[in-house]
Amino acid sequence: MNARKQTPSRRVQNKTLLIVGEGDAEEVFLKHLKTLLVGRSSGLQIKIGNAHGKGARNVIDHARKQWASIAYDQVAVLFDTDTDWSPEVEKRARDAGILVL
Fold it and tell me: How many CB atoms lie within 10 A of CB 76?
């Protein structure tokens, strides 16, 4: 029998990104962008979430809760600024380390 020395395989850890959209339209848009821009061998795993409306504050709070339960490397949000977007809500996102798109 030949004793073949096996080299340990190195598993590359993908970076993880959570992007939370305000509603259904944002979720569909983000999923479409993901298929266009992110390939399987990109080293990036993206999860698209849906906060189901209720304005900017709700989207940021939803993203914070998701981030607290699953340790993503980065979190971003996408929403309309027509309802409850204020300097206080912007500060809330910034303080949490959430990227606002």
Answer: 18
